[in-house]
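Let's do one together. I've listed all components of the complex below, 884 residues spread over three lines.
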Amino acid sequence: MNNKKRFFAVPYVVWMTAFIIIPLLIVVYYGLTNVDGKFTMENILAMFTPINMKALVYSLLLSFISTVICLLLAYPLAMILRNADLKSSSFIIFIFILPMWMNFLLRTISWQTLLENNGVLNTILSALHLPKQHIINTPYAIVLGMVYNFLPFMVLPIYNTLVKIDDNVINAARDLGANSYQTFSKITWPLSLPGVISGITMVFVPSLTTFVISDLLGGGKVHLIGNVIEQEFKFKYDWNMGSGLSLVLMVFVLISMAFVTKYDKDMEGTNVW
Amino acid sequence: MVRKLSRRVYLTVMLIFLYAPILTLVVLSFNASKSRAKWGGFTLKWYKQLFSNEETLNALYTTLLIAFLSALIAVILGTLASIAMNSMKKKPRALLMAITNIPMLNADIVTGISLMLLFIFVNVVFRTRIRLGFTTVLLAHITFNIPYVILSVMPKLRQINKNTYEAALDLGASPIYAFYKVILPEIFPGILSGFLLAFTMSLDDFTITYFTTGPGIETLSTQIYTEVRKGIQPEIYALSTLMFAAVLLLLVFVNRKSAVKEKE
Amino acid sequence: MKRLLSLVMISSLLVLSLAGCGQSYDLYVFNWGQYIDKSIIKEFEEETGYKVLYDEFEENEDMYAKIKSGAAIYDVICPSDYMVEQMIQEGLLQKLNYDNIPNAKNIGAQYFEQAKAYDPGNEYSIPNYWGTVGIIYNKNMVNEPIDSWSAIFDEKYKGNILMINSIRDGLGIALKYLGYSLNSQNEKEIKEATDLLKKQKALVQGYFVDQIRDKMIGNEAAIAVNYSGEAKMMIDENPDLAYVVPKEGSNIWSDNWVITSNAVNVEAAEAWINFLCRPDIALKNFEEIGYSTPNEAAHALIEDEETRNNEIYFPGEEITKRCESFSYLGVEGNKMYQKAWTEVKAY
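Okay, and this is what the predicted structure of the assembly comes out as:
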């Protein structure tokens, strides 16, 4: 029977080959050739021109900051949620999934209304006689947009691993004389590490590669690596260059993947539901 | 006590952070002024106009149809694959799982671009004239949805006691019958949550759709993206508010029901 | 359970097949965003029986990328002057058959004459709209008369300037301000313009195209660069705004209907162009969109005298004289401009 069962995977394998493996090979092909189809490293090396390098470093910086902020905000949140005596934990999870039903772009644009010079935040601030803040169209607005959009992807994996920790383990540690700091550093933190790692990748990768958030909240002034690639495809019609840059970007994705598979064997942390 | 209070405060602040933009959009849907920047008084006219706005309704229809079909097909392919993988040896399973992880962890922009290149490549190599559009978007959405299904179904499959299935076979059930009676009920919650997750992801996707769509096929995401540049029609706010309210009510209802069940 | 499952399968297959064959169109139109009175599309469909798929683009460059790559096949599109020239040279357009577009006679002769700069012989294109590029400013936030591009490079307006997010317009303005041609291919001149724009970046609130309208109406900025047609629309909404074509000169542009060389339905495309050249339709379009029409017959039909002689809609010779139109830069020139603009945007 088990032999037969294995054939259930055939449609899946065919599908993933056609729509994941082959497309990626096409990207590799375009990335390593020029317009005439001859082999070249030019498109890969283009990442190291000053303009693109600046965009890459800037993207790495902004996504790193966003990831750190997300982690700092999400971990306490997940702890609170875990310790709260909830009759149904699913409701809490819904609270974080629910915003997704408001379109991603609309949610982001809405921050324009909140942050604009004459926007909601500044109206409130000036009513309180506080100085106006110029946040919109700056890198701060972009970091805020990233944190806002990707925070649920940090909270849920951490929450999922925290819930699985048996209360008895924590109580045992306490009984054996560990203070709350020791309990955290010796028990809770190590056990939640898979969730933290997958949370980090699920925030870092989309932040690194976004072009929409910088587009909507940066006023076209901040050029991230995602914008560079999008421009190559949508405006310059240079697929070879665009593919070459995408290949370099994938290196970072592969590194993150290696991390995740090392710490989270079954990818259970990524299961946000 | 202080600890409890600070927890409350923290939770409240986070909820405000998460829901402030959503509240803003709800308020904008009642704004009589067409400009995002001005409050022009309360109105319901955008809700009325929404139902005669063909463009937006079309985009909604396309979005929902793609979300439904892609989630459904992903569920079928993904569940079959999970069952197969569950009975595999460690090495091939690890290989398949690694492939499953690619679309989950890869950058959306790369996934989108690679699929766009695939469709154009097919046109060039086979001299076809496939227009990018509904079908290509659907194929792309199925592709990124399958992993979500597998990740929801796999854990449930692992919890199943293999002996129950064997017992059913020993008692004379055909494999198919045994599957429906023994395995399916066990993994059904996983399938359902996989479907819902896939549906939500498809609904919320912009990047991959942006690269794989073509003339005439707009989902809500791509329509909003074009409208951002020329000024958003307030009907979109009205539509989003309605969708949000519908899901909220549904969730509250489901939650109540399951809470009642738990009590019993 | 089994029956339920098969039911779901069958119904989904049905929906899938329905969705697959449900949509087919006779004519694929690709036009600028907010560039037509949408009711005209319906009128056209009713009158001719052709079913229209209408799509919009934001910039000449993204339209070109789609057409050139084959990612999209459209029958009739509306590119600007220099883009028409480029597309003709690359064989992306086909010659028009004027016998099937009799209404083309309504277009003023001087516009056809101007068009010869990018379409010698007027074989490929028919002007649709035209206008200028200039400065739109808020009279409450600016206390001096503005007549020069120097305003958008002025420290005084730091954070209050909206720059146009368009490669040719952006670089063109800087070149013009420096006293050069906006079609310059001189490396030194372009370098100068690039440096100027880089320095300007610190003053700019953001780079936009269509979003400028909402922001200027909402008093979010004092000064913006935009097209004449947009300016008129903004002034109608917010009377504190004013529009000027700077004294250093600017760009005079025209957008034109063309038929692509791989058009599937040429007959429908010709009918479309002919329909839009009809005086009553061109007038309706002008009144809704606010961009200047080259259609003389439609111009004569404008009832409101003030509109008919409006300086923004129909600038006099005194203004057009100091303006220059874009021409195609060639492959190398395009690369040079792209590099310069990327440098500015990534600065």
